[in-house]
Amino acid sequence: KQEVTQIPAALSVPEGENLVLNCSFTDSAIYNLQWFRQDPGKGLTSLLLIQSSQREQTSGRLNASLDKSSGRSTLYIAASQPGDSATYLCAVIPSGGYQKVTFGIGTKLQVIP
Amino acid sequence: DAGVIQSPRHEVTEMGQEVTLRCKPISGHDYLFWYRQTMMRGLELLIYFNNNVPIDDSGMPEDRFSAKMPNASFSTLKIQPSEPRDSAVYFCASSFRWRGRGRLIGNTGELFFGEGSRLTVL
Q1: pLDDT at site A71
Q2: N or C: which end of chain B has fewer CB within 10 A?
């Protein structure tokens, strides 16, 4: 059974700092991995999708990497801003079908002005 | 381009009442998912459909829960009778497969979520 772990559970950083969020998974037979952002009381907004054949994806100040062999993905946020404050979740989508999509609990990020 | 649309955004009801949550997936998407999110358990998949057909409902917690997808643009999740432990945020998500000349070309599996329906059962 796939298990997805996100560390740390919460993170508080001063504005302008570069930071890394971690996502670990136990089964490397994945189809792709998706990073989401969730604001309080809101739905999940897709940030980046990395397919299993890719090693990284970039969007603006965000960069996500994927290392299937070690079961790890990282989300790098450059020059953090207060508007980045949210909960960040990773989801592992397996090749075996959607019923086995596994979400991490998320990392709650607070960027202090 | 409209995203996944859910209604109601908030629902407060009393134990024993019937609750119906609604979802309109993104046009052209052929997969639809119902998730439940709680602080204790995070996101849990309840059921998903492909081309309006339920594929896996093993996440539906009890017979009190039922879901339908009468057409490609509408789905409902019904709880009858509702209980306080059903209080949670219920999300609908959709996804799609790429096709060309009738053949499956690819599928990123990317999930698109609605804003959620926050249910409180008193």
Answers
A1: 94
A2: N
